């Protein structure tokens, strides 16, 4: 039995199969999920699990070299601050500081290139992040 924060078998498999440069999206409940990427739907009820809880669990096993989120999240600086703070705590401050942002429509197009899209129970608009996998060396 695993003893890290990441216990979900589908998530563990995605992390184990991820290669350098692969994209993994952590999505709120409202993000449209295109055909192609694997859909891992973890949503149970509003805010369960939250994006921040999922990012915390993923950071225990996934190496990330960059992040991307939608410009529209900047409109709510409190939500943006929480997202970037969680990324800073889980990975590094440099990732959060150097985050790429795109208009939401372009963000949705980028999700087509993702290996997987993980749907949370988050009801916060635009609370989505694409993680670009890195290497631990």
Keywords for this structure?
137 residues; alpha/beta; RbsD-like fold; 6-stranded mixed sheet; 5 helices; 6 strands; 20% strand
Notes on the structure:
This protein has 137 residues and is of the alpha/beta class. The chain has one domain: 3-Layer(aba) Sandwich (RbsD-like fold), CATH 3.40.1650.10. The protein has five helices and six strands, in the order H-E-E-H-E-H-H-E-H-E-E. A six-stranded mixed sheet has the order 2-5-1-6-3-4. Helix 2 packs parallel to helix 3. The longest helix is centred in the middle third of the chain and has 14 residues. The two termini are 27 Å apart. Its main location: cytoplasm. Catalyzes the interconversion of beta-pyran and beta-furan forms of D-ribose. Belongs to the RbsD / FucU family. RbsD subfamily. Its EC number is 5.4.99.62.
Question: In summary, what is this structure?
Answer:
This protein is an alpha/beta fold and 137 residues long. It is built from five helices and six strands, in the order αββαβααβαββ. The protein has a single domain, classed as RbsD-like fold (3-Layer(aba) Sandwich).
Count of β-strands: 6
Q: Which CATH top level class fits?
A: Alpha Beta
Gross geometry: globular
Number of domains: 1
Question: Which SSEs are present, and which pair or pack?
Answer:
Layout: H1 9-17, E1 23-27, E2 38-41, H2 51-59, E3 64-70, H3 77-90, H4 93-97, E4 100-102, H5 104-110, E5 116-119, E6 129-133
Parallel strand pairs: 1-5, 2-5, 3-4
Antiparallel strand pairs: 1-6, 3-6
Helix pairs in contact: 2-3
């Amino acid at each position: 039995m695993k003893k890290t924060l990441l216990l979900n078998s589908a998530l563990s498999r995605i992390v184990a199969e991820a290669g350098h440069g692969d994209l993994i999206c952590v999505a709120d409940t409202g993000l449209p999920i295109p055909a192609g990427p694997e859909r891992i739907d973890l949503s149970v009820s509003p805010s369960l699990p939250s994006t921040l809880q999922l990012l915390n669990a993923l950071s225990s096993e996934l190496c990330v070299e960059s992040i991307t989120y939608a410009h529209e999240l900047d409109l709510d600086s409190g939500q943006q601050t929480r997202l970037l703070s969680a990324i800073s705590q889980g990975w590094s401050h440099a990732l959060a500081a150097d985050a790429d942002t795109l208009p939401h429509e372009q963000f949705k197009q980028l999700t087509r290139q993702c290996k997987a899209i993980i749907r949370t129970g988050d009801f916060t608009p635009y609370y989505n992040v694409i993680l670009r996998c890195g290497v631990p060396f």
